[in-house]
Design brief:
single chain, about 250 residues, alpha+beta, Immunoglobulin-like, Arc Repressor Mutant, subunit A, 8-stranded mixed beta sheet, 3-stranded antiparallel beta sheet, 6 helices
């Protein structure tokens, strides 16, 4: 009876939730790791030892941390840690890839060794006569400087010669003849006059579509004529439905 009550309390503490299961495997061969210790931070915490790498936990909804460790003769060899969030009932599969365990002091020693080896390599790469300048080392820079100076001088000569030719062409080129100015038209053009006469013949009031039908122009041309007459204050244009009504002033 006492064992039954303990089991009932454990079941009620988790409630109806989900199942998280998977396999703890070695990172390089992906072989299951037997006797790995897997734990999850539920309340209370659950812990088990894997058989052929398999583990399984019943958990309620929430966010948990899965942690797995594998020991060989009390030495931590592999470990893994994953965060998992459970929302709703169901079975969740999460395989744990176990990587080699690296202790903090090992990382510090590795960094110190790397720094020491790097310093030694840099010292070995410095030649004994690194601070001395040899005469043969100055030959190539001198040749490059002379070639660059010659190239600059040649470019200046070419530019000067081209400027002289352009100035000569400008001097010899005759001035263009000025065309007589065209007299400005004070009144409307023939197209505008034709539109005004058409409006006047139809009582001074038409739609823009009717005006377009009675003029020998296209739709775009008639739109330009109407806009120009409106700008000249010869007509008034009103919007009516999808078209325009034009009234002659």
């Amino acid at each position: 009876m006492r064992l039954y009550l303990i089991a009932l309390l454990l079941v009620s503490s988790f409630g109806v939730g989900a199942t998280i299961s998977g396999t703890a495997v070695e990172w390089y061969t992906f072989e299951p790791l037997d006797n790995a210790i897997v734990e999850i931070n539920t309340t209370p915490k659950q812990l088990l030892v894997t058989q052929k790498g398999a583990y399984k936990f019943d958990v309620p909804n929430g966010t948990y941390t899965l942690r797995a460790q594998y020991f060989d003769e009390n030495t931590l060899m592999y470990e893994a840690q994953e965060e998992v969030t459970v929302q709703g009932d169901g079975n969740f599969t999460l395989d744990l890839i176990m990587f080699p365990a690296i202790e903090e002091h090992e990382l510090i020693l590795d960094d110190a060794n790397n720094l020491e080896f790097t310093a030694l390599e840099e010292e070995e790469q410095i030649p004994p006569n690194a601070g001395q300048i040899r005469a043969e080392d100055l030959v190539i820079p001198a040749l490059v400087f002379v070639a660059a100076a010659a190239l600059v001088l040649w470019s200046v000569v070419q530019i000067t010669s081209r400027e002289s030719e352009i100035e000569k062409e400008i001097v010899e080129k005759p001035e263009p003849k000025k065309l007589p100015a065209q007299p400005k038209q004070d009144g409307p053009s023939d197209d505008l006059k034709q539109a005004i006469d058409t409006l006047r013949n139809y009582g001074g009031r038409m739609t823009q579509k009717e005006l377009r039908d009675r003029l020998p122009f296209g739709e775009a041309k008639v739109s330009l004529i109407v806009a120009e007459l409106e700008q000249m204050d010869k007509i008034k244009k009103f919007k009516k439905g999808r078209g325009n009504v034009i009234i002659l002033k």
